[in-house]
Design goal:
The protein contains 28 helices and no strands. By secondary structure, the protein is mainly alpha-helical. The protein has a domain of 154 residues. Helix 18 packs parallel to helix 20. The longest helix has 40 residues. The protein is extended, with a radius of gyration of 32 Å.
Length: 453
């Protein structure tokens, strides 16, 4: 809101009017000051909103809101900080900036393919790209001898030089051998026999590198003390190596629980059938990650308490819930889509898929969930509009189910208002987004097109 300077009414009059005039001027200035304070507060609020959105959306791989398509700092944060390697929806002031693109290519070589047409066809730029990341040569349209030669020079310089061979069998320094084994389990093959034969030494060996179990005799693969020591180091890898040889240990409840409680819920994968059907063991695993439900018995996959615990912890665990529960338990279906909208693809009951609460909840989290929504809903324009109001990204998937001439202006605007998603970039849509989402934003470094008005 602009200050109304017409409110300032200064009149020159005789001395006896000075007091009244001073009061009028003072009051008007106070009003102006309050208006300026309000303006400043609003500007700061929308600036913070813009910067917060820029940070949060830069973590997103799905799309870029229209207000950030020309924002170089947005893409720098996305690529360099968040390691999200997609700039395909950026404007040319971003993907055509050679210095910025070289930073991106240093981080990820295939981003060369997403550079502007002019940069991709600039041989000098390609040479610089190979200098900062030689792997970018693989994504270049130029394959001439000079570029190939530089690529091979850099590639060969990266190859580790061969280290001098050490004769471990004649080495008397046990600690040096153990350190070598810690780096490379194969060293145990070249070490003195005691490293594979003496239990006291074997315990030290597996505590350094559990992969050495592959080179030990079956006697040690079945030795509970050795396996417990190895589990303390790496539970999953230990069980993966010994499970074919130590069936008795795979039925040892305390050992399997120990492995699970060491932060390896998928230790359940190697447990015996009896333990996969043990509710305590399975509960311990799914409380760490619900997807461990995939390793539980069919009976426990049909246990509602187990299923609800798994889905609450990890929504996509719904995929491994029994078909019986997925067909009959609405609460479980809703819980799944509340955590991951794409879980609507696993809802087995058509009635649940037509449930507006379930469908709209799914779409509010994932635009792609529209692909798995019942056709009766995804071709309903009223339903689609409501979904877009909850998640603008739904509009991307609408195109496949509603003819383009039936995609209304209101759908397009609601998507822009909701999260800035746009099928196409235009100044008009950018202005609509800025006026709706950041009506009093002032960024001195931004261009008028970014600010909208």
């Amino acid at each position: 809101m602009k200050p109304n300077f017409s409110d300032v009414n200064i009149q020159y009059s005789s001395d006896h009017d000075d007091s009244n005039n001073h009061t009028i001027v003072s009051s008007s200035l106070e009003q102006l000051l309050e208006l300026l304070k309000c303006k400043f507060r609003n500007q700061q609020f929308y600036k913070m909103k813009y910067l917060t959105n820029r940070w949060e959306f830069s973590k997103n791989d799905e799309f870029t809101p229209i207000e950030f398509m020309g924002d170089k700092e947005f893409y720098w944060i996305k690529v360099i900080i968040h390691k999200k390697y997609s700039i395909a929806d950026s404007l040319e002031n971003v993907n055509g900036d050679s210095n910025l693109m070289l930073q991106f290519i240093r981080e990820c070589p295939y981003l060369l393919e997403q550079a502007s047409y002019s940069l991709r066809n600039d041989r000098e730029f390609i040479f610089k790209a190979i200098e900062v990341n030689y792997l970018s040569y693989n994504y270049s349209i130029f394959k001439d001898p000079i570029l190939l030669e530089r690529y091979l020079e850099i590639k060969n310089s990266k190859i580790d030089k061969t280290q001098p061979e050490i004769n471990y069998k004649k080495c008397n320094d046990d600690e040096m051998i153990l350190k070598a084994i810690e780096s490379n389990a194969v060293v145990i093959q070249k070490a003195p026999k005691k490293f594979k034969k003496e239990k006291s030494m074997v315990l030290k060996v597996v505590s350094r590198n559990v992969k050495t179990l592959s080179y030990l005799s079956n006697q040690f693969k079945k030795d509970r003390d050795v396996i417990m020591e190895a589990i303390n180091k790496n539970a999953y890898k230990t069980l993966e190596i010994i499970s074919p040889f130590a069936l008795k240990l795979m039925d040892d409840k305390d050992l399997i629980l120990m492995a699970i409680n060491r932060g390896e819920p998928f230790a359940l994968r190697f447990a015996s059938k009896r333990l996969k059907n043990d509710k305590q063991v399975v509960m311990a695993a799914i409380q760490q990650t619900g997807s461990a439900l995939s390793e539980a018995s069919t009976e426990l996959q049909n246990d509602r308490e187990i299923a609800m615990t798994a889905v609450t912890k990890t929504p996509y665990a719904y995929e491994w819930v029994s078909s019986q529960l997925r067909k009959t338990d609405r609460e479980l279906a809703l819980k799944a889509v509340q955590g991951d909208g794409l879980m609507i693809s696993c809802v087995a009951n058509t009635e649940f898929k037509l449930d507006l609460e379930i469908a709209l909840t799914a779409l509010s989290l994932s635009g792609r969930a529209l692909v798995f929504t019942e056709s009766k809903l995804r071709t309903n324009e009223e339903f689609i509009l409501e979904a877009i109001k909850r998640n603008g990204f739904v509009l991307k998937y609408v195109v496949g189910y509603i003819p383009s001439n039936r995609i209304s202006e209101e759908m397009i605007l609601q998507a822009i208002y909701q999260n800035g998603f746009s099928l196409n970039y235009s100044i008009e849509l950018l202005r609509a987004r800025m006026n709706n989402c950041y009506p009093e934003l002032y960024l001195p470094s931004s261009s008028p097109t970014i600010l909208g008005n």
